């Protein structure tokens, strides 16, 4: 492994972290934007919704296109588009323009995740590939905190527009670095992009028993931390402070350290073995919180919950990439779409169930995932 390929890996990890950070940009500045744009919090929240929905559409479209035109063109041009649309958001002067520009920004942001995962498969092998997949996903988890810190600190000191000026510069820099340093790869599997053909391709993935089971498991992976933190907010806020909640989120990020050892775990125990270790950590984190929902029990258990997600997400990506090698970009695009759709159900779940009810649901889903994984087969 040359130093240049290690540098490429670092570039992908850093890019992934900053791309995902933008998902959480509006959360800490809802009140500020409500005052500045003279609108309601619910209308500003639609800016986050439009970002997420268009992001999901971008995941499917760009992941499939990368199988046609190659990974690098999508990553590079997608980052340029993300930079430009980030600047556009800074000019929003009404709730409507905020919703529209955030939607455009989300669509552009969808060009990274599935393409970067497929690109990692194309460039790397073995333990180092597993490590890079784990680290990119760790960046996504860290982004949940980092994105809010960046947004809150810049908006408080300079104004909300400067948040998007900041991202415009960052994404422009990442565009230039990607254009210069990312190598071309021979990953094209199709000769032309046809939407109807893409729909048939996605349908064929769902008709594959192994991939379908992977996608059912995938649905729960981001649903788990999103619904956990949402339910935790509702449970602790009446009896605790916002600072305590932020402290739990921050300390829980210690769980991402386990992702560094993802390659070694995969090498020793295999992909299925790694999956079962992740599920064991998940179950081991949920049961104590169900039985004793105390602040410190939740604090320590949250670390193991994040650890489990740090192992499970890159493991499922690796399994999907191993099962579907011909149209890997498209298969991982559908994975990313399913992951995001699962996350969107987090708020719905917490609106129906209390804190311990959510934990019990996640526990049952985790146990079901064990049986689903036992039915999945693939060539090693």
TrEMBL record:
<keyword id="KW-1133">Transmembrane helix</keyword>
<feature type="transmembrane region" description="Helical">
    <location>
        <begin position="42"/>
        <end position="62"/>
    </location>
</feature>
<dbReference type="GO" id="GO:0022857">
    <property type="term" value="F:transmembrane transporter activity"/>
</dbReference>
<feature type="transmembrane region" description="Helical">
    <location>
        <begin position="332"/>
        <end position="349"/>
    </location>
</feature>
<keyword id="KW-0813">Transport</keyword>
<keyword id="KW-0472">Membrane</keyword>
<feature type="transmembrane region" description="Helical">
    <location>
        <begin position="355"/>
        <end position="372"/>
    </location>
</feature>
<feature type="transmembrane region" description="Helical">
    <location>
        <begin position="246"/>
        <end position="267"/>
    </location>
</feature>
<dbReference type="GO" id="GO:0005886">
    <property type="term" value="C:plasma membrane"/>
</dbReference>
<feature type="transmembrane region" description="Helical">
    <location>
        <begin position="104"/>
        <end position="124"/>
    </location>
</feature>
<feature type="transmembrane region" description="Helical">
    <location>
        <begin position="210"/>
        <end position="226"/>
    </location>
</feature>
<feature type="transmembrane region" description="Helical">
    <location>
        <begin position="7"/>
        <end position="30"/>
    </location>
</feature>
<dbReference type="InterPro" id="IPR011701">
    <property type="entry name" value="MFS"/>
</dbReference>
<feature type="transmembrane region" description="Helical">
    <location>
        <begin position="74"/>
        <end position="92"/>
    </location>
</feature>
<feature type="transmembrane region" description="Helical">
    <location>
        <begin position="274"/>
        <end position="292"/>
    </location>
</feature>
<protein>
    <submittedName>
        <fullName>MFS transporter</fullName>
    </submittedName>
</protein>
<comment type="similarity">
    <text>Belongs to the major facilitator superfamily.</text>
</comment>
<feature type="domain" description="Major facilitator superfamily (MFS) profile">
    <location>
        <begin position="8"/>
        <end position="380"/>
    </location>
</feature>
<dbReference type="Pfam" id="PF07690">
    <property type="entry name" value="MFS_1"/>
</dbReference>
<dbReference type="InterPro" id="IPR036259">
    <property type="entry name" value="MFS_trans_sf"/>
</dbReference>
<feature type="transmembrane region" description="Helical">
    <location>
        <begin position="298"/>
        <end position="320"/>
    </location>
</feature>
<dbReference type="InterPro" id="IPR020846">
    <property type="entry name" value="MFS_dom"/>
</dbReference>
<feature type="transmembrane region" description="Helical">
    <location>
        <begin position="162"/>
        <end position="182"/>
    </location>
</feature>
<keyword id="KW-0812">Transmembrane</keyword>
<keyword id="KW-1003">Cell membrane</keyword>
<feature type="transmembrane region" description="Helical">
    <location>
        <begin position="131"/>
        <end position="150"/>
    </location>
</feature>
């Amino acid at each position: 492994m040359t130093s240049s390929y290690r540098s490429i890996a670092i570039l992908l990890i850093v890019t992934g972290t900053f791309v995902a950070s933008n998902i959480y940009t509006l959360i800490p500045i809802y009140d500020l934007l409500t005052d500045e744009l003279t609108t309601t919090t619910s209308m500003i929240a639609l800016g986050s919704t439009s970002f997420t929905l268009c992001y999901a559409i971008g995941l499917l479209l760009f992941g499939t296109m990368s199988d046609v035109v190659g990974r690098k063109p999508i990553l590079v041009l997608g980052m340029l588009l993300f930079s430009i649309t980030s600047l556009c958001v800074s000019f929003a002067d009404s709730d409507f323009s905020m919703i529209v520009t955030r939607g455009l920004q989300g669509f552009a942001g969808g060009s990274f995740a599935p393409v970067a995962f497929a690109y990692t498969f194309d460039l790397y092998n073995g333990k180092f590939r597993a490590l890079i997949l784990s680290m990119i996903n760790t960046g996504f988890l860290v982004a949940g905190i980092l994105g809010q810190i960046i947004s809150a600190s810049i908006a408080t000191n300079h104004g909300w527009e400067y948040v998007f000026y900041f991202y415009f510069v960052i994404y422009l820099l990442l565009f230039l670095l990607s254009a210069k340093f990312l190598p071309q790869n021979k990953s094209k599997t199709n000769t032309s992009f046809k939407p109807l053909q893409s729909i048939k391709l996605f349908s064929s993935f769902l008709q594959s028993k192994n991939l379908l089971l992977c996608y059912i498991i995938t649905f729960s992976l981001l649903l788990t931390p999103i619904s956990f933190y949402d339910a935790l907010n509702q449970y602790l806020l009446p009896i605790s402070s916002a600072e305590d909640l932020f402290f739990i989120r921050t300390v829980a990020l210690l769980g991402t350290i386990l992702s560094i050892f993802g390659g070694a775990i995969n090498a020793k125990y295999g992909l299925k073995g790694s999956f079962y270790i992740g599920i064991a950590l998940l179950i081991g984190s949920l049961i104590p919180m169900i039985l004793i929902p105390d602040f410190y029990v939740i604090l320590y258990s949250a670390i193991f919950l994040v650890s489990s997600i740090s192992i499970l997400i890159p493991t499922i990506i690796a399994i999907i990439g191993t099962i579907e090698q011909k149209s890997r970009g498209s298969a991982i695009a559908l994975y990313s779409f399913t992951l995001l759709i699962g996350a969107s159900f987090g708020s719905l779940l917490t609106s129906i169930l209390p804190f311990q009810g959510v934990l019990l649901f996640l526990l049952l889903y985790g146990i079901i995932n064990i049986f689903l994984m036992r039915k999945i087969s693939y060539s090693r």
